């Protein structure tokens, strides 16, 4: 953390903030609290300007080329699973998906739209490479391929791609934020909507949630939702297969079997 002391000065107390990269820290001094990160995407500035992440205070470029960003440390809490049915969640996700500024920035950063066809090709290649021959996996891929014509969507928006409740933060003054944008993509909004609805909202309440978001639950959207949820389950299985985590592999195989039965009976 010497690089942080060089940026801030030795009078700041610096502690790791966790996370997969190990490049995030909290810094405190005289009641001031900052969240610091090394090499955040330039996307962060637009997210801050749009009020989607806690306010960006400053950005500094180091001599070695690293970029350090400082944001206000949020005083508040993560959302609980039961909170995901709230209107403010639907409204913030709608704001993100409809933001031209976010979309323009991701395009400038070189992001190419993610299409159902390209995703399936990647999945098929991974299954062949890993020499996976599991009936549920093969059946899931066959179904996803069969439904390709039904899930094409002209709408391409900025998707967060990890709308887990732990990534939603509510401040003490009830301002909602969505953090951890490292996996953001340009894609069908059903990627975010589907994962959120499937894992957090009773299906009987989908129409009500989507009404707050600003969409009607029709057959096309319903098909896309389940397509992307099944896709996520496949991706998760492959991830744990690469980690040789048999327990989680079995867990995701169960989910895949449940989803296959649901889709085939609808």
From TrEMBL:
InterPro entries: Aminoglycoside_PTrfase (IPR002575), CcrZ_PhaseVar_Mediator (IPR052077), Kinase-like_dom_sf (IPR011009). Pfam families: APH. One of its GO terms (molecular function) is transferase activity. Keywords: Transferase. It comes from the Bacteria. Residues 17-214 form the Aminoglycoside phosphotransferase domain. This is Phosphotransferase.
